[in-house]
Design a protein that fits this description.
This protein is an alpha/beta fold. Helices cover 34% and strands 16% of the residues. Bound molecules: flavin-adenine dinucleotide.
């Protein structure tokens, strides 16, 4: 193996800075709207090695490492990739991250590792995110063909229940299993993955990237129990009664925020999560009772300005639609979602109407959604987060034709589990109160992490919270 550069490594930084930047390659918009396949083309080995050789190996601590929520040792990984040591690079990522294949694809790298790359000051950052995905895929292919990268350690005899199979629960389960604890993951949905599986569309995170990771966790001895909603089908107390020694809760935020305007319950008005599940899921992975004959509208309006709105728009343009429009109550400058996703959505044919606020959903003669009455807004004073408030202009009402509306305006935690767990303290809006370092909650033996604690955030922060909680759970089990 190539030795990883240390403090005294002599490399020609100037030469590296002036190496040409080749960028990422995307499938053309006209091709990609015809399917749900991944939009970014993968690196081949030569391209990956070249891209990694652009890293100038900043002295410790490198800004990219500091910016990464799990502090991946990115410069060392770049060095290994540059020298073709792809398995070693993956092993390095796996020391700090349970799922480089997810984070390499869906992290907002431009705000995290790549955003802090010193090369981005005068040029283009090293594409560290795409390189992470490259080595993860390389490793997965080898793992699938040659057997596990991971081995199961001896069993400790301790049992932990993980509630929620999203990135926080899976991250927690992976680390606990690597310590030898017996882990059972309960989830309300038929297939594990949480929003990786039921939120983020296939064209950003292909399902065939998720499946091998679930197999990898199963090969570590982790048991998955689907279709089981804790708080309803059984309680946290039931889990302790069944012999689990500790419980981790990573149930995310699955209740869609509503607009609370007339007509919101009309047929044709969808909640963002419902729409994404129906439009993106394999029918076999749909929960019982969810309609299997989903039919997209011709004129689809998505309400919202975040990443979920972009995902809904980009899903809709891939289906049999004529017009797909996003309406947002502020201007583009205040939109919280990623600029890159917006650019991709525009290239794929989505349109945007800013300073527009729905006030009523209007039914046609058939009783289904036919139009949306909106108000024109102007920008007012900044709110507590510094974003200028939308102020409706009186009398500016206008109508937008739409036979489908998708509300992508935010999520809240479901409090059923919290309220059925004695001793578990919740915040005002239902988030679980937990120690940010350890995930320990007010109830001994119960830990929590991910969106259920922080509110909607990122895959990487949820995974990191699950991993940190696993360390704390292990300590708790040893002390107990
Ligand atoms: C449409 C969309 C797109 C996104 N895109 C990105 C992106 O590109 N990059 C990024 O970093 N982040 C993205 N996010 C955010 C990211 O997906 C979340 O921050 C992350 O998945 C949170 O992980 P989690 O484990 O906390 O919860 P989740 O992923 O929400 O998983 C929670 C799990 O708990 C289960 N559950 C809920 N209640 C119960 C219960 N009572 N009993 C049993 N199981 C239960 C659910 O079925 C689910 O499987 C996106 C979010 C959405 C909605």
């Amino acid at each position: 193996m190539q030795s990883i550069p240390g403090e005294f490594l002599e490399i020609n930084r100037k030469k590296r800075v002036y190496q040409p930047f080749k960028g990422l390659s995307y499938r053309s918009p006209t091709e990609r709207v015809c399917d749900f396949s991944e939009v970014v083309l993968p690196f081949d080995e030569n391209r990956a090695r070249f891209e990694a050789s652009r890293c100038i190996h900043c002295p410790d601590p490198a800004p990219c490492v500091l910016a990464c929520p799990v502090h991946n040792d990115i410069p060392s990984a770049m060095w290994l990739i540059e020298h073709g040591e792809f398995d070693e690079a993956l092993r390095l990522y796996l020391q700090t991250s349970s799922f480089p294949c997810f984070c390499g694809r869906v992290c907002p790298h431009e705000q995290l590792c790549q955003g802090s790359c010193v090369l981005s000051k005068d040029g283009a950052p090293v594409l560290t995110g795409h390189l992470e995905a490259f080595v993860a895929d390389y490793g997965t292919c080898r793992w699938l063909s040659e057997g596990g990268l991971m081995t199961s350690p001896p069993k400790t005899g301790k049992k932990v229940a993980v509630v929620g199979a999203g990135p926080s629960g899976l991250g927690c389960a992976q680390v606990l299993a690597s310590y030898g604890h017996s882990v059972t993951v309960f989830d309300a949905m038929p297939f594990p993955g949480g929003l990786l599986m039921y939120g983020i569309p296939n064209f950003k995170l292909p399902r065939n990237v998720i499946y091998p990771q679930i197999d990898r966790l199963k090969s570590l001895g982790i048991t998955f129990v689907p279709n089981t909603r804790i708080g309803k089908d059984k309680t946290v107390d039931d889990l302790f009664d069944q012999g689990f020694n500790a419980v981790f809760i990573g149930i995310g935020t699955w209740i869609d925020a509503l607009m609370e305007i007339p007509g919101e319950d009309l047929p044709g008005v969808y909640k963002g999560s419902h729409f994404l599940i129906l439009a993106n899921s394999d029918p076999d992975h749909l929960p019982a009772g969810m309609e299997k004959d989903f039919k997209i509208g011709k004129k689809v309006v998505v309400v919202g300005g975040g990443d979920t709105a972009s995902d809904c728009l980009r899903t809709a343009v891939r289906l049999d639609t004529e017009e797909v429009t996003c309406i947002y109550r502020r201007t583009e400058a205040e939109m919280p979602g990623s600029k890159k996703d917006r650019q991709l959505a525009r290239e794929e044919g989505a349109e945007y109407k800013f300073l527009t606020q729905p006030v009523r959903f209007i039914a046609g003669e058939d009783g289904k959604l036919a139009a949306i009455e909106c108000l024109q807004n102007r920008l007012g004073e900044p709110d507590e987060k510094g974003r200028r408030r939308p102020v409706p202009i009186e009398g500016s009402n206008f109508i937008i034709e739409a036979d489908m509306a998708v509300l992508a305006i935010g999520y809240w935690p479901d409090t059923t589990l919290g309220k059925s767990t004695p001793g578990l303290q919740l915040k005002k809006w239902g988030e679980i109160i937990a120690d940010p370092e350890t995930g320990a909650t007010s109830r001994p033996g119960v830990f929590a992490g991910g969106d259920a604690v922080t509110g909607p955030d990122l895959v990487v922060t949820a995974m990191a919270a699950g991993r940190h909680a696993a360390v704390a759970i292990d300590k708790y089990l040893q002390e107990k």
